[in-house]
């Protein structure tokens, strides 16, 4: 086969496309893995959860985070820039009032905080917020 | 690390039946993440509180699974419904096997 410039471009770009597709799972971050483990790969929609986080956190050691998810059974928090993405899981019991909770978390660097809520009907809702961190909170 | 661990909980003393009340809890704990290194470069082993639960008269309000990303002196704020007069039990579970417990009673009028 005579290799023309046009052919070479076409084949190489298609090869890149295939490589890109197949290697996706390997490149998926720890956070995506952790979320998939939680949801079993189910589709998530946004809107059912509200996540309260500061836009800028001066100290990554204590970043106040609040979640509010009406009708949720449990809410899991992830921080995608931390060495371990899982942060906490809140399971709401029968006497829980508003399905909301707030706490303080550590963030290593500027990153996204993700809240995934498991609703009563078994579906999942998510919310995401970027927090800029001036001083990281993981020591070293 | 079981020294100097002191739970503090804020629960209103009175409420009306079926009311929603806000509860704030704090426990003093280092929450050593297992990521830090000491001066010689050795990793300081993880030592955190990994679970926190709040119950009212035996019924669960909230059950939190905690990872090292929770800050020093873990703080939680949440809301509960109080159907009758009773007692809240707050329990923290340490990595080293210790269990810290705090009780608060509330009068429902």
Q: What's this, in brief?
A:
Chain A has 140 residues and is of the alpha+beta class. Chain A has helices spanning 5-22, 24-27, 30-39; strands at 44-46, 50-52, 56-59, 63-68, 72-79, 86-92, 96-105, 111-119, 124-135.
What does this 3D model show about the protein?
- The complex is a heterodimer of chains A (140) and B (109).
- Chain A has 140 residues and is an alpha+beta fold.
- Chain A has 3 helices and 9 strands.
- Chain A has one domain: Sandwich (Immunoglobulin-like), CATH 2.60.40.2470.
- In chain A, strands 1, 3, 5, 6, 8 and 9 form a 6-stranded mixed beta sheet that branches.
- In chain A, β8 (111-119) and β9 form a beta hairpin.
- The termini of chain A are far apart.
- Chain B is built from no helices and 8 strands.
- Chain B has strands at residues 7-10, 14-15, 19-27, 49-56, 59-66, 75-82, 86-94, 99-108.
- In chain B, strands 2-8-7-4-5 form a 5-stranded mixed beta sheet, with no helix packed on it.
- In chain B, β4 and β5 form a beta hairpin.
- Classes of the chains: A alpha+beta (140), B mainly beta (109).
- At the A-B interface, β6 and β7 of A face β5 and β6 of B.
Question: What order do the helices and strands come in, and which of them pair?
Answer:
The complex is a heterodimer of chains A (140) and B (109).
Chain A: H1 5-22, H2 24-27, H3 30-39, E1 44-46, E2 50-52, E3 56-59, E4 63-68, E5 72-79, E6 86-92, E7 96-105, E8 111-119, E9 124-135
Parallel strand pairs in A: 1-9, 3-9
Antiparallel strand pairs in A: 2-4, 4-7, 5-6, 5-8, 8-9
Chain B: E1 7-10, E2 14-15, E3 19-27, E4 49-56, E5 59-66, E6 75-82, E7 86-94, E8 99-108
Parallel strand pairs in B: 2-8
Antiparallel strand pairs in B: 1-3, 3-6, 4-5, 4-7, 7-8
